[in-house]
Here is the input.
Amino acid sequence: MTGSAPAGGSGSLSSASHAAAPLAVRMRPRTLDELVGQQQLRAAGSPLRRLIEGDQSMSLLLWGPPGTGKTTIASIVSQQTGRRFVEVSAVSAGVKEVRSAIDSARASLVRTGAETVLFVDEVHRFSKAQQDALLPGVENRWVTLVAATTENPYFSVISPLLSRSLLLRLESLTDDDVREVIAHALVDERGLAGGVEADDDALEHVVRLAGGDARRALTYLEAAAGAAQARGVERIDLASAETAVDQAAVRYDKDGDQHYDVVSAFIKSVRGSDADAAMHYLARMIEAGEDPRFIARRLMILASEDIGLADPTALTTAVAAAQTVQLIGMPEAGLTLAHATIALAVAPKSNAVTIALGEASADVRAGRLGTVPPHLRDAHYGGSKKLGHGTTYEYAHDHPFGIAPQQYAPDPVVDASYYRPKEIGAEAAIKERWERVRRIVRGEAD
Here is the structure.
């Protein structure tokens, strides 16, 4: 099983597992074999198992969502290798506290030979200077650093620390994993010790709201058991579970790695025309307190990138939504974002505009520039006529349909066809007209 955050200070985490400790702390696994989930880390011959069973001194960087076992793994490394445990929280500690912890570990190593596991929770919250302060202890192996982060370490952890640590990726627990954690806690002597039973629908309610977070599941279970006992019963029914767990906290860190995952899923759902999925991700962002202006900006980008002229009103809708967000703010602007999200999700899609810009930019970067044709050059200054600027320019409005056949592009790209409309939505009609217009402009019309 995975567990909750440890008590601060030094010493084994098991010291916190007294009767009055939270259920999630009491049920913290003591060995790697007791850990639920993370099969890739527990497998025979895995780096983590070799580190623990071989008692090696190697620093770890644990990356994963909340409640997946990061703190638990730090505890197991400490207990199974007989090392002291010292925790530093990145939320409250500064460079002084980091150096003090490392100095203490070094002194202990010199004086008694006792090695130290230094656990740094939420290491991504450390500044570069604070992370730099960890390096001497890691390089000289004065400590076995176990750093935990919910954010992508390639963005949030300095390269020297990353290169000196074994990076382990933890995955969210499955619902079956969470059920196993709960079932064990109901009967284990460290847990509820069979003092209460639970209806299946009550347990499923807890599993659903836990969202793959074992610590949250145990917290909800403990609250539900307390609610049942307060009613003088020894069984957790659905009503007790619902009373104890009034509302699930949305597990989404708008400043962390999940921010990028949820935003990515939101954009891809709108692009893929799944309005229902798009609304789910929109709701997650809104409930997590995401900046509505950020959401509106992404919708404006998508309107041109993925819809373009297949629905010429898409960009207008997205811009109107962005302006409305600025004018009325949240929570009312949530309706506006939903309006725009659904409108863009169900709109016909074309990336022809995106392709056109990409191919034109590629030609420019490749040096296919050429000179502006003389008849298109500025002819408003004295002497321009002597240079031949604009002398043969054909004024479009003097020609049938307002289209003048003449060369507009420079010679190196005179035959380029960047914009290729698709036969989707309104762009189908644009395609038909554009093909006629292009033939006239290039003198290819019958």
Remarks:
- Residues 95-112 form the longest helix (18 residues).
